[in-house]
């Protein structure tokens, strides 16, 4: 059962919680505008958050963190739900081997994280989402289930997100 991989949710640090919105803050909506310097993420902030996402201790993730995954697993006619089959195929190609039975649970979480990375619009992303994806891939690595293209996709999306957050 997928629940075997279950652990607690990762939380972003308080330093990033204020910046984790994709729109104006309540203060901004009431006319208190921030300067460009205040809105920009510095390279230090980016590096600090990237380190948190990829930190080995960021490895707490469960099936409930991925919307509809638990239900899809329950009704799936195969081990991998239909909407994740194409990603499971990419993973098999990337890893060069079929997924062993004991790793199916983590494969489902990795598939769900990749699916979110492919489907979520940039405006809906937040720093907690990146921590969840990082925790998923870190946990997978701990279990010997490394998917290189997923790490690359996460790094690319993180860079795009920080670039998007930066005003022009």
Automatic annotation (TrEMBL):
Region annotated Disordered, chain positions: 1-31
Protein name (Swiss-Prot/TrEMBL): Uncharacterized protein LOC111296850
């Amino acid at each position: 059962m997928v629940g075997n991989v279950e652990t607690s949710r990762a939380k972003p640090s308080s330093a990033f919680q204020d910046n984790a919105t994709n729109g104006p803050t309540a203060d901004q909506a009431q006319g208190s505008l921030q300067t460009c310097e205040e809105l920009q993420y510095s390279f230090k902030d980016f590096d600090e958050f990237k380190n948190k996402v990829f930190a080995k201790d960021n490895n707490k993730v469960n099936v409930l963190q991925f919307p509809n995954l638990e239900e899809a697993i329950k009704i799936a006619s195969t081990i991998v739900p239909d909407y994740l089959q194409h990603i499971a195929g990419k993973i098999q190609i990337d890893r060069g081997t079929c997924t062993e039975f004991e790793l199916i649970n983590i494969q489902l979480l990795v598939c769900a994280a990749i699916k979110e990375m492919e489907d979520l619009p940039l405006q809906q992303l937040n720093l907690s989402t990146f921590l969840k994806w990082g925790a998923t891939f870190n946990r997978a690595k701990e279990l010997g289930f490394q998917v290189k293209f997923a790490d690359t996709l996460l790094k690319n999306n993180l860079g795009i997100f920080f670039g998007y957050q930066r005003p022009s």
